[in-house]
Amino acid sequence: MDQRREPRDSAPGTPVRAGVPEHGRVPKYYAVKGQLETLLDELGEGGALPTERDLAARFGVARETLRQALRDLLIEGRVRRRGRGTVVAGPKLEQPLSLVSYTEGVRRQGRTPGRSLIGLDRIAAGDELGDQLGIGPHGLVWHLERVLLADDERVGLESTYVSVDRFPHLERDFDPDSSFYTFLREVARVRFAAADERIETVLATPREALLVGTPPALPMLLLHRVSRDETGTPVERVRSLYRGDRFSFTTQLSPQG
Question: From what superkingdom does this record's organism come (predicted)?
Answer without folding.
Answer: Bacteria
